């Protein structure tokens, strides 16, 4: 397939009503997809239909609406199972998103299994939500964190990984795709190595699920976390995949309704997974919306989406990288959908504001990856991140807006 042709062919912006909204009188080029994606009509409608036609609480009702809501929630769990190719729907726990999924593993598996002297292996690429829960766990258990460094290109130092992985390593927690640099990590290979060393593996899939096919069985990981809102679904819903044997052995995290088998003041017994980890009324409408989002991307095909975004990333990397005074941060060989950069003498936040006035929405800052910014000796970057509805006009708007910023700062055509 010709990548450039494909970039023009996937013309799906019409499915996303918000993209038709002019911003500051300009056509919106929404390039902040790493933070959250926009929602297609199919998702908005699925949530609306749920509230208009099927809303009730799940599990506890004998009446028609409750049965319907329960069925929709179960169907949504099956959609997530299919998306990740998990063996069974019972391996899918609904959460608020990636952050809550990782906190669940840290609080439940972590507190039950880690002790002083144990090590958790992270990487320099991690988002704060795959760092801080482990720090909290270390404070409680006496375990310690070790960190795989990255090269100047933003790739993991694999020799260092092998050295850091040892008999004390109990857990490897690693992102599949870096939200700050776009680096795609070889997670299947790293999982196999971690398993050989006796560690279990959690993958942060927040930036991966919308951009490539994910197969937890092929990766071989023990846990996989993602957020629906980065996959064209609603906010406040996401999931944790956990291997059945691990989930079955894990103690509850939050207590409340729906996660119990019996309750007495003398003590309670708990439901099997996944209910054991879903205390209280869940985000039922969110799950329904997420299922609609999964149907939407699967109907287009994640392979097609990946090819389309790759073509856009290549075009943007060449065009932005060629601007005198621009420095790309993160030039890994395998990258997904994210272009981080600095423009000489223009602070990323100023650049973000200038781009906004041109209708170009990007993110500026540390991207919740402060240790990674420290590694590169920078306070932050400007970041453009692509999704299935972006097109070449969005890339051209980004480039034109950067030129405009340089004109305003009188730095066009100059290098540092
Ligand atoms: N991990 C990565 C790699 C992310 O990009 C994000 C969101 N920026 C998260 C975790 C956290 O996701 P959420 O805020 O949806 O829980």
Automatic annotation (TrEMBL):
The residues forming a coiled coil are none
The entry's keywords: Pyridoxal phosphate, Transferase
Recorded hits in InterPro entries, A to Z, give:
Aminotrans_V_dom, Aminotrans_V_PyrdxlP_BS, Cys_dSase_SufS, Cysteine_dSase, PyrdxlP-dep_Trfase, PyrdxlP-dep_Trfase_major, PyrdxlP-dep_Trfase_small
Q: Which reaction does it catalyse?
A: (sulfur carrier)-H + L-cysteine = (sulfur carrier)-SH + L-alanine
Question: What's the EC number here?
Answer: 2.8.1.7
Per UniProt, residues of the Aminotransferase class V domain are: 30-398
Q: What family is it from?
A: Belongs to the class-V pyridoxal-phosphate-dependent aminotransferase family. Csd subfamily.
Q: What is this protein called?
A: Cysteine desulfurase
Q: What organism is this sequence from?
A: Thauera phenolivorans
